[in-house]
Inverse folding.
């Protein structure tokens, strides 16, 4: 039994099928990348795991418990937390309030002061911006708040949807280092990325998604050397 | 001149009560993104609750708050949970849940007709209550005491709601949901529970307005409609979703209504209120004060 198991799921938006018979698993302590081009279904996969959409067929198990019929708040309560694509901050709330809302679930709420300390030491920048409205932050700072807000929920499994999107190269590097640090501190990570080189470099394993199907999977360093990956995703 | 001042003050006081009746409307819209057409009927229910609580027991009219606030909170909570939530769930994928608006219109009709059935069409007033017709005199200026208390209730309620939204765990979750439902779900917030609470609070504030009105205002089955129409104007003036805007918008309407008749016939004042409403809709749809959310 794996930590997270996704078994043969089919996902639809209305009548349109977006994910086809997809199976994957994540073990505790791993960093797993999900790689794929625009529209491959990466975000849809994460939204399904988070319970925002239900799969039409198939199962999702977390720590052995079926979660594919559970609402998002229950799934967060179990410890699966998503940092969504495009950050989705609460723009008219302060940085501090954004972070505190992250700790809304019962389990995290009890420890929120301590987690806030941890997040502040991971992103010292945010401490200075504490009372600023989230929408007035720079893109890089906003991404820090988005990740920090996710961490406030005390995830066992943290899923990040394109955290490097729209960031300058230096900031991007910064974010990837932070993700590595989070994983090193013991959180299991699922990383959706289009920056294939950087994400594979910090991952243990990866899945490659095309048109809603996994077309390849394996250890990250092997995929980095794979000819198809090199041509299609690394532009080599 | 002195009369204008008197009308101005009484207009501000009465207007703040209008604002209080609209507070729940603006809060519910801010969170659910739905205009609650039943809001005036909620106010009507609150007024009847206050009326009967006082008429049957003979206690001081404001003591009715002890009963009306919790009863109205539960009423709003239950209405959202039982009637509106299922529609919301069915329309999950829809960005603008129009059917919810239609349902609130249905609730409005049902409540108004139920009260007609149960309480009859007559106008009810709290006879010989200690606040009725009571005035404070400052030189030549007379100020209505129950309206002054209504003003205090409006300001206190707005402040309490604001602080609740700013400072509490539930309040932050409500704000987060109003800004981004889906992101809030990803933070582990059950959005339907938030809607229940927002509806409960919005309805409770209508109950407070009911208690403030009953000592000097008639209660009858369709009384909510009057306030509903004013409420929509007020929240547009003040900015849909803004708490401070609801109070200020209410005061603007109150002042136009009370000072206007000094210089023109009363029907014209209503025309002015509607003209202002349309003007704001055309020129500055985000409201006179330009803030969408102040919470
Ligand atoms: N709400 C929606 N309704 C209908 N179709 C949708 C919806 N969201 C996404 N899709 C479609 O589902 C497919 C997969 O989208 P998804 O957002 O999961 O891709 P992605 O891999 O995350 O892409 P990107 O890298 O651009 O973020 C796309 O074809 C998209 O058009
Ligand atoms: Mg995506």
């Amino acid at each position: 039994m794996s930590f997270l198991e996704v078994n043969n799921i089919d996902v639809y938006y209305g009548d349109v099928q977006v994910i086809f018979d997809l199976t994957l698993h994540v073990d505790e302590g791993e960093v797993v990348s999900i790689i794929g081009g625009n529209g491959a279904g990466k975000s849809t996969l994460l939204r399904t795991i988070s319970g925002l959409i239900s799969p039409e067929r198939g199962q999702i198990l977390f720590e052995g418990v079926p979660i594919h019929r559970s609402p998002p708040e229950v799934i967060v309560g179990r410890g699966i937390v998503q940092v969504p694509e495009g950050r989705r901050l609460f723009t008219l709330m302060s940085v501090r309030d954004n972070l505190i809302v992250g700790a809304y679930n019962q389990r995290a709420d009890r420890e929120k002061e301590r987690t806030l300390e941890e997040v502040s030491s991971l992103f010292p920048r945010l401490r200075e911006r504490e009372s600023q409205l989230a929408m007035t932050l720079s893109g890089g700072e906003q991404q820090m708040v988005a990740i920090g807000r996710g961490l406030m929920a005390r995830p066992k499994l943290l899923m990040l949807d394109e955290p490097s999107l729209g960031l300058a190269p230096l900031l991007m590097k910064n974010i990837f280092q932070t993700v590595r640090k989070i994983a090193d501190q013991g959180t299991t990570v699922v990383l959706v990325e289009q920056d294939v080189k950087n994400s594979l470099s910090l991952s243990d394993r990866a899945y490659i998604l095309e048109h809603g199907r996994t077309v390849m999977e394996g250890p990250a360093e092997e995929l980095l050397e794979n000819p198809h990956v090199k041509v299609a995703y690394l532009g080599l | 001149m002195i009369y204008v001042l008197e009308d101005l003050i009484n207009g501000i006081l009465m207007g703040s009560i209008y604002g209080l009746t609209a507070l729940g409307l603006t809060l519910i819209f801010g969170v659910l993104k739905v205009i609650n057409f039943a809001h005036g009927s909620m106010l009507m229910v609150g007024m009847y609750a206050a009326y009967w609580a006082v008429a049957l027991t003979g206690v001081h009219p404001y003591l009715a708050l002890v009963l009306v606030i919790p009863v109205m909170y539960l009423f709003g909570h239950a209405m959202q949970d039982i009637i509106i939530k299922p529609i919301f769930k069915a329309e999950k994928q829809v960005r603008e849940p129009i059917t919810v608006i239609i349902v609130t219109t249905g609730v409005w009709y049902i409540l108004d007709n139920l009260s007609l059935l149960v309480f009859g069409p007559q106008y009810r007033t709290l006879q010989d209550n200690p606040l009725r017709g009571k005035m404070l005199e400052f030189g030549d200026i007379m100020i209505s005491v129950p309206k002054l208390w209504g003003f205090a209730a409006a300001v206190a309620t707005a402040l309490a709601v604001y602080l609740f939204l700013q400072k509490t765990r539930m309040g932050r979750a409500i704000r987060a949901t109003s800004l981004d439902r889906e992101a809030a779900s990803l933070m582990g917030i059950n959005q339907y529970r938030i809607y229940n609470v927002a509806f409960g609070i919005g309805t409770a504030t209508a109950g407070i307005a009911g208690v403030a009105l009953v000592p000097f205002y008639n209660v009858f089955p369709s009384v909510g409609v009057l306030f509903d129409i004013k409420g929509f104007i007020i929240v547009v003036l003040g900015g849909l979703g803004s708490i401070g805007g609801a109070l200020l918008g209410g005061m603007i309407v109150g002042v136009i209504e009370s000072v206007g008749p000094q210089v023109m016939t009363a029907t014209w004042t209503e025309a002015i209120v509607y003209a202002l409403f349309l003007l704001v809709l055309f020129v500055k749809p985000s409201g006179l004060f330009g803030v969408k959310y102040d919470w």
Strands of chain B lie at 135-138, 141-144. Residues 13 and 34 of chain B are 28 Å apart (CA to CA). The radius of gyration of chain B is 19 Å.
